[in-house]
Design brief:
Layout lengths: L2 E2 L7 E3 L2 E10 L2 E10 L6 E6 L5 H27 L10 H23 L1 H11 L1 E4 L5 E5 L2 H12 L11 E2 L4 E2 L4 H4 L3 H4 L18
Antiparallel strand pairs: 1-3, 2-3, 3-4, 4-5, 6-7, 8-9
Pfam family, one: DDE_Tnp_1
InterPro entries: RNaseH-like_sf (IPR012337), Transposase_11 (IPR002559)
GO biological process, one term: DNA transposition
């Protein structure tokens, strides 16, 4: 930081966070340094924002906008990990859009349950389950893991056509396009497909 005329000597509180800001210059460019701390956190977060902020209201808007974007990124990360999106090998845009739509719907159901105090209390005891790492150590406790597990089992047991499937012949080989149930199986289960024998399949050909 080249020049920082102001000091963060005034704190504002709003929405469960404490924050302050100072107008600075970085390599000749006007920037604003914002410090943020939550009520339950002892650590301070620092943000550098382009331009000089004129009011505490504007500083809070930029902080809340960042946290909203962070929550969206975390939700996509959770969906990929918990619902096993990366296990589905799809190439077509329509198939990918259908898959994301289904998973987003499931995520929305879980979010609605969590936001309802009465329903969440009723389901807390029956749906509670801990998450462990590879060393069998408790990582976190999320009371809707069993619900998400149930949704995953429903998707894996679905026998209908979720995606648009087709058979296609290449000059050198005949390639079969499996239904969604195949892609949602665990890797060790993929090797045991009824009627397929010991046929070798390339990953690049397993598409919906």
């Amino acid at each position: 930081m080249d020049i920082c005329k102001d000091k963060i000597n005034r704190r504002y509180k709003k929405g469960g966070i404490s924050y302050g800001y100072a107008k600075c210059y970085y390599h000749g460019h006007a920037v604003t340094l914002i410090s943020v701390r939550g009520n339950s956190s002892k650590n301070m977060l620092y943000f550098m924002s382009e331009g000089h902020i004129s009011s505490s209201k504007e500083a809070y808007f930029r902080i809340s906008s960042y946290f909203s974007r962070w929550k969206i990124e975390e939700s996509y990360k959770f969906m990929k990990q918990q619902f096993g999106i990366e296990k589905c090998l799809v190439r077509r845009f329509e198939s990918l859009r259908t898959l994301l739509g289904m998973v987003s719907f499931c995520w929305n159901v879980l979010s609605q349950i969590e936001s309802d105090v009465m329903i969440s209390k009723l389901l807390e005891d029956m749906a509670k389950r801990e998450k462990y790492d590879n060393e069998d150590k408790k990582v976190c406790e999320f009371k809707y893991y069993r619900i998400s597990d149930g949704i995953e089992r429903v998707l894996r047991s679905y026998n209908g056509k979720i995606f648009h499937h087709r058979d296609k012949k290449y000059d050198c080989d005949y390639v079969m396009y499996f239904k969604i149930g195949y892609y949602l199986k665990f890797p060790e289960e993929r090797k045991k497909i009824f009627g397929m024998g010991k046929m070798k399949r390339k990953k690049s050909l397993l598409v919906a």
